[in-house]
From TrEMBL:
Residues 302-372 form the PAS domain. GO terms for molecular function: diguanylate cyclase activity. This is diguanylate cyclase. SUPFAM superfamilies: Nucleotide cyclase, PYP-like sensor domain (PAS domain). It comes from Sphingobium baderi.
Length: 591
């Protein structure tokens, strides 16, 4: 919301400078007890609030107006025209530096939104004034009877205390926070806050206007209550009430402060310190509560979204504790595993997993606890799994507390059975030749590599390489359709002569390979001869009614764990070449 003080017309700089001049002049006329630097200084708090809540494009005119107002007020009511320019530079340097630090570090956020922005403002204000105060003390010590140390202390205390007390309140005012709070808050809470502020005002008035007992701690109780009930809005309003009621007593030297045996400047500093401690008691607590309220609201919204998703989707949702026991199960559990969610409460989630997959799932759960910021996935079968396609996928992520420690794990579990079936079907298609049904070249070579690794453990297996004789003549005489049928019949006719563990693969064209597991070279030769006769003894009938006799030549090599697949295929191919040169329809062994 735009501040009423931030006008787009030419009156805006004049209004800004006028307010700064009035506040600065009032401070100089009422709190320059030793003729030097004012003990109370809230003018820079106004400029800082203006810079913190306005666009950077408007900073120059606001700074110019306030600089001019500072110089005039110092010349008329302060240390005179000689000090006007130096003090103006110090005031502008303080306000501008604090504003730049806050805007850079808290990204333009309200300094009372949470504890971190407020802490940045407090540290920046104190640090900047410690440095800037050195220049101001040098000017004051040369133009007034006040010493350098006293002047520096007066500057730091007046500017720091004034900034701490006034800037947060002014920021809220300029950003329209008060009006927004009034519109969005219930009437009952507004009346409650008004009553608590009246109680605080009356208590503060009595405490500061009586001089019998040291009761300065009494207003702190309603101050804290207001901070808890109304947040940073109430805390800021409480500081204003406390400053007005207690300030009146300090200004007129009435009540408890009049009993302190000290100068007026010291009493003023004492009251400012009292306000700052009240500030540090209420505003940081209110800022932290404000952050927690927003977090709680976000959690409520997140919980609502989570409940809708968990209770109306087909996936199972489980909340698990640190011990792996189920704390929550979504209604979809009944449909997925046939068990009511209430019956799962307190049960170990691992009991639902198939024994073969339980270790993998438990390891994934522990990894989620150890790496709470990451998402972890695992596929598994449930205890009631019927076949190898009855699979589920779990996505797990840890639930973290305020210190980013894991307090449990939330899991979504999806039925992967259809996906697994499609995946297996695709693998089946990819691993088999579409024309003949034989294993594809790539899949066959993978099986060959696996078998090579296995033969190193006193296992003997063989590789048989086959090539159809005169296949080109079949294509030339009868067409490619007839050639395709011959290839299909060739594979189908050989399969009955093979065992379940044997594998026939298509290497391309009319070339095939058979992996004969657990057979030595002699046994494999016998199998090859049987297959050769099975093929040659019965012709292949074509769709045209004609028939062709199909034979094949073969090369056989025994697997050697020291040779790779390429070397074995080359050896078998050389043996096959010799078989073709020997008249075809025969078997040759690799050298």
């Amino acid at each position: 919301m735009r501040s009423s003080l931030r006008l787009s017309s030419l009156l805006a700089p004049a209004l800004t400078g006028g307010i700064y001049f009035l506040v600065a002049s009032l401070s100089l006329m009422t709190s320059c007890f030793e003729g030097g630097i004012a003990f109370i200084w809230a003018a820079n708090a106004f400029l800082m609030a203006e810079l913190l809540t306005s666009q950077r494009a408007n900073w120059l005119r606001a700074i110019t107006a306030c600089a001019l107002a500072s110089a005039i007020s110092t010349a008329l009511f302060g240390m005179g025209p000689v000090a006007a320019i130096p003090m103006m530079l110090m005031n502008v340097a303080e306000s501008l530096t604090v504003a730049v630090i806050c805007r850079y570090c808290v990204s333009g956020r309200n300094i009372m939104v949470s504890l971190v922005p407020l802490a940045v403002f407090v540290v920046a204000l104190c640090g900047v004034n410690v440095v800037v105060g050195l220049g101001s003390a040098l000017v004051a010590s040369n133009l007034t009877p006040a010493s350098f140390g006293d002047s520096w202390l007066q500057w730091c205390s007046g500017h720091v205390l004034g900034g701490l007390v006034c800037t947060p309140v002014l920021v809220m005012l300029m950003q329209g926070e008060w009006a927004r709070w009034f519109r969005t808050t219930s009437r009952l809470l507004r009346l409650e806050l008004f009553g608590l502020l009246l109680l605080l005002g009356g208590t503060t008035w009595y405490v500061f206007h009586q001089n019998h007992y040291p009761l300065l701690f009494v207003p702190l109780l309603p101050l804290v209550i207001i901070s808890f009930r109304a947040g940073h809005y109430g805390a800021a309003a409480s500081i204003v009430v406390l400053a007005l009621m207690g300030g009146a007593s300090s200004l007129f030297n009435h009540g408890y402060l009049s009993t302190i045996a000290a100068s007026a400047g010291t009493k003023t500093q004492f009251f400012q310190i009292y306000l700052v401690f009240s500030f540090l008691l209420s505003l940081p607590v209110a800022a932290e509560l404000n952050g927690r309220r927003k977090l709680f609201q976000m959690l409520r919204e997140s919980e609502a979204r989570y409940r809708i998703i968990a209770e109306h989707c087909g996936d199972m949702v489980l909340n698990l504790g640190i011990d792996g026991r189920i704390h929550y199960a979504s209604p979809s559990v009944l449909e997925q595993i046939g068990c009511a969610p209430a019956l799962l409460m307190g049960q170990p989630a691992a009991d639902l997993i198939h024994p073969k997959d339980r270790g993998l799932v438990v390891a994934t759960y522990r990894r989620a606890l150890e790496q709470p910021g990451d998402i972890h996935r695992v596929e598994f079968r449930l205890l009631r799994a019927i076949d190898d396609l009855d699979w589920y996928e779990m996505v797990a992520r840890a639930v973290m507390d305020e210190e980013n420690g894991a307090t449990g794990v939330v899991c979504t579990i999806r039925d992967m059975s259809r996906h697994k079936a499609r995946q297996q079907a695709l693998q089946q298609v990819a691993s088999h030749d579409s024309l003949t049904g034989a294993t594809s070249r790539r899949a066959f070579l993978e099986k060959l590599e696996t078998e090579i690794d296995r033969v190193g453990n006193n296992v003997r297996s063989c590789l048989l390489l086959l090539d159809l004789d005169h296949f080109k003549a079949v294509n030339d005489c009868h067409g490619h359709a007839a050639g395709d049928k011959v290839l299909g019949v060739f594979v189908e006719r050989l399969k009955p002569g093979l065992r379940g563990e044997d594998c026939i693969g298509s290497l391309g064209g009319e070339e095939f390979a058979i992996l004969l597991a657990d057979l030595d070279i002699r046994q494999a030769s016998t199998v090859c001869e049987r297959l050769r006769h099975m093929m040659a003894d019965e012709p292949v009938y074509l769709d045209t009614g004609l028939s062709v006799t199909v034979t094949f030549s073969a090369g056989l090599v025994e697997l050697d764990g020291a040779l790779n697949a390429a070397a074995l295929l080359e050896a078998a191919d050389k043996a096959l070449y010799r078989a073709k040169n020997s008249g075809r329809n025969c078997l040759h062994l690799a050298a």
